[in-house]
Amino acid sequence: MTTSVRVRFAPSPTGIPHVGNIRSALFNWLFARHHGGAFILRIEDTDQARLVPEALSAILDSLSWLGIDWDEGPTDEKGSSRGDFGPYIQSQRKEQGLYQAFARQLIDEGHAYECYCTPERLTEMRKRQQEQKQPPKYDERCRNLSDEERARQRGSGAATVVRFAIPLEGKTRFSDLVRGEIVFENETLDDMVLLKSDGFPTYHLANIVDDHHMEISHVIRAEEWVSSTPRHVLLYEALGWDPPLFAHLPMILGPDRSKLSKRHGATSLLEYRDEGFLPEAMMNFLALLGWALDDKTEIFNQGELIHHFSIERIGKTGAIFNREKLEWMNGLYIRNLPVHDLADRMLPFLEKSADIPKPVPQDYLARIVPLVQERVKTLAESAGLTDFFFAESINQDPDALVQKGMDREGALGALERALGKIEGNAGFDAEALEGALRPLAEELGLKTGQLFGTLRVAVTGRAAAPPLFETMAVLGRDRCLSRIAAAIKALEG
Question: Per residue in 166-178, pLDDT tens?
């Protein structure tokens, strides 16, 4: 890059951030880190009517959980900030009077005008346009008012907004770093509101003013903002400023190729955190939603993503959010974690489970983890896969104890003989248990799968569980003997 890279993520705190928002943040962050530039977090809260109280903390939590750190921006929910271009919350920047000053400048120079249309008139106008199958667009009524009419409107105390005067003819073009040159006919553009009647700027004015004053070099944002970009280019021109470079990211689609929504499952990033996805797996997965190094490499750690990331490798077509692939990737990351690391990450999920006594012994958990690590896809599954290790007793289902090809009497006899073998065996590690119990199957005339299946249900309460002898060794002699005895009673009953 020939100039210093400064990019921003500028969410609106009107809801909990979804994966599309955070994917935009990630691409900006990767671009900044790749070029040694700055990543700025700016909160665009000008839509005061739609603010959600917990949204700002959710934005900060989402970025922090994923490992996206910001060089400038708010550091807490109160708006404390770091950086030389603050404050970084637009409602606080409003107090500086910048937005109002530039709106007045645009009016004075003939690029904007005051509009006095009531909400009722605008609703009626849109209804009429809809009936006539015309595109919704302000009809420019206040654009051509005489000075006398403007004075009369001001004198009446009519609510006033400031609109941008879009050129009535010609074309506006800009170069998109992802999509190439894009051209819009000016006659299709609307005279957008810049300043609302409550004195707050709209997104269109505030983000232009702030991007300019924060020296943003690249605006990397979602595809939905392509149609707004010609308005922004014209606004830059009217203010006499050079626009940043634009890059619009492909839309994220559900498996049915419609826009990703709640009906496709969880869409909030924090929902995925709470479901037990690892942040490093989620970062890897989100990076591949619209970007690729080649047609085969899918696993990247954070350093590799930063090293390889470039706008040139961002695609134009929609990216499919495939939850099955995310679960596969998360499972892969889980299997590659060191045992104690995975135990630490599983612990909060186990402690939330009503089926696991508290506190969870960490040394004991570290012995359990290797037995289930291959089977865990999300951390939230870990409680259901391990709860039988912690229970004092388990429910014994007589029917489940009887394996295919066996009868109740055969299962009872197998457990009684197994109980005797275990009681008389000095060792209780996996090797000693297998040495004592494997020959028993032949003695009883059973297949090893039948004997081991009955034992597995007796000591774990389930037909599918980690390897039997390793599981018994972790459970311990006393717990296994107690459970086998309870299973015998269940069969006798």
Answer: 999 999 999 999 9
